[in-house]
Design a protein that fits this description.
Layout: H1 6-16, E1 25-32, E2 35-42, H2 48-58, H3 72-79, E3 85-88, H4 91-99, E4 103-107, E5 113-116, H5 146-156, E6 162-169, E7 175-182, H6 188-199, H7 210-217, E8 230-232, H8 235-243, E9 247-251, E10 257-260, H9 271-274, H10 278-308, H11 325-347, H12 351-371, H13 377-391, H14 396-433, H15 452-459
Antiparallel strand pairs: 1-2, 2-4, 3-5, 4-5, 6-7, 7-9, 8-10, 9-10
């Protein structure tokens, strides 16, 4: 607790913070009339113009008629015109607020400190995210400042029941985590469960922001490569899920929002479906479901009919050249790894060199590989087709999970043929069905447990007047 003696409070502050050792701490010893005061903040966070105006008002002698401050609250309320002012007396609270960028003002003879929120975080523009581009619709996206993100949501949903619950995670980082939901549309037990899980986390910092938080809330394993939560960088997508009774989780320093509860069908949806007319949107969504199936089965089927079963010549459209089974398997795996390496290199290359890299990968490497007998035209074609349908999926995390399943199916198909492919598909279904989620809900909802109305809304893009949000009765059941 704060002391009434200013010198003791200054001494305590110097013990807690690296004042004098770290260059970015700013401290000022002030005289407000005859009353001593002490100002402490961190350089780079505070808005200099606002802070100068506050100090100027504090030192205005017209506010201190008796040349001394006897009632700190009355003095602050009368002479500090800044809106965001808070009285604190707990050092833990002061430590967290000061390290997040606020200003601390202490008075001699007062056992309360004044926190002034004059922060101005550096932030980039709210441009459209690269991973969720649409041809029409809003062009803004979440940024690393969670205050900006909550404003983007509040701008679209002007519901008085829209709630942003703030929690802190990490003993070192003390990262701000926001739980967003609309009261009356979300199940209260889901919100309470999430709050309990977040408050019980024992971690030093959220190193990778919202992604680290997801792994802490839903521990991952090698048996479950699919993502345990749905992420988005688009405010319009987050708002649509909020209106349907979902929970949106935001973390400071992370431009992504986590949507809870999560089910596998969410990864097949895209805002592009709703910026088109219903027939066009359903056509695109149908193609997307087909892309998910091809992404998983195209290369395993190539191995199945190229190694174990040969179709009649009139129907054999997969393999036209005689390739030894072992070589075919090695070439398929090499193509899988090579295309992934090419995609990874392209995504991490500057835009100035991306075009040149595409020419090198598409023309030189492909043609030379065929000439050197390192690949066949069929394998190059089906590998490129697999990469194409993979990139057509709206969720990168979901596509990467399917890639792990695809490699697993390729190995089983090469070893055991059709029986291996069938057994692999069964194991893939079991793995997907048992994928751990943050709130412990079914990953296959609304298929299991079955909810027809919710399933229809996820599979079929309906007209807006017939597609109003499903209320609480459409939410996943909670596992006891």
């Amino acid at each position: 607790m704060l002391s009434c003696v200013l010198e003791e409070n200054i001494k305590k502050a110097r013990q807690i913070f690296a004042i004098g050792e770290s260059f970015d701490y700013i401290e000022r010893n002030l005289f407000l009339g005859s009353t001593k005061a002490y100002l402490l903040t961190i350089n780079g966070f505070a808005q200099t113009v606002v802070l100068q105006r506050i100090i100027s008002d504090l030192q205005n002698c017209s506010f201190v008629k008796d040349d001394s401050i006897k009632n700190c609250r009355k003095y602050v309320n009368s002479c500090i015109g800044y809106a965001q002012v808070e009285f604190v007396s707990d050092w833990n609270r002061i430590e967290r607020m000061l390290l997040s960028g606020t200003c601390l003002l202490l008075f001699d003879g007062c056992s309360e400190g004044i926190i002034m929120d004059t922060r101005a975080y550096p932030v980039r523009g709210t441009e459209e995210p690269d991973t969720e581009k649409v041809t029409r619709g809003a062009k803004d996206g979440f940024v690393e400042n969670f205050l900006v993100n909550t404003t983007l949501i509040r701008r679209r949903i002007r519901n008085p029941r829209l709630t942003f619950s703030l929690q802190t995670v990490g003993t070192d980082s003390k990262s701000d985590v926001v739980i967003a939901y609309i009261g009356g549309k979300v199940k209260p037990e889901l919100v309470n469960r999430l709050k309990e899980k977040i408050s019980s986390l024992q971690v030093t910092s959220l190193t990778l922001g919202i992604k680290t938080l997801e792994e802490l809330l839903a521990p991952r394993s090698f048996l479950h490569p699919l993502p345990g939560a749905h992420f988005t960088e688009r405010p319009d997508v987050a708002c649509s899920f909020l209106e349907e009774g979902y929970i949106v989780l935001l973390a400071d320093n992370s431009p992504m929002a986590m949507i809870l509860p999560c089910s596998v069908f969410q990864f097949m949806q895209s805002p592009e479906d709703y910026y088109k007319s219903p027939p066009v949107g359903n056509y695109i969504r149908l193609i997307r479901f087909g892309c998910a199936v091809l992404c998983l089965l195209l290369l395993p089927c190539l191995l199945l009919f190229g190694v174990h079963f040969r179709l009649p010549e009139a129907f054999d459209v997969l393999v036209t050249a005689e390739v030894p089974p072992l070589k075919l398997f090695i070439l398929v795996l090499a193509m899988e790894v090579g295309l992934e390496l090419f995609r990874y290199a392209t995504s991490h290359t500057s835009d100035r060199f991306a075009g040149a890299l595409s020419i090198v990968g598409g023309l030189i490497i492909g043609e030379v590989a065929i000439d050197l007998n390192w690949a066949t035209p069929e394998i190059l074609f089906y590998g490129a087709a697999t990469m194409l349908v993979t990139l057509a999926l709206p969720s990168l995390e979901f596509a990467e999970g399917l890639r792990i399943y695809r490699i697993f199916l390729c190995i089983l198909t090469w070893l055991f043929g059709g029986a291996g492919l069938a057994a692999g598909l069964a194991l893939v279904m079991i793995s997907a069905a048992t994928t751990p989620t943050v709130l412990g809900t079914s990953y296959l909802w609304p298929l299991f447990p079955f909810h027809g109305k919710a399933l229809a809304s996820l599979l079929w893009r309906r007209h807006t007047r017939n597609a109003q949000p499903i209320r609480n009765n459409g939410k996943p059941k909670i596992k006891k």
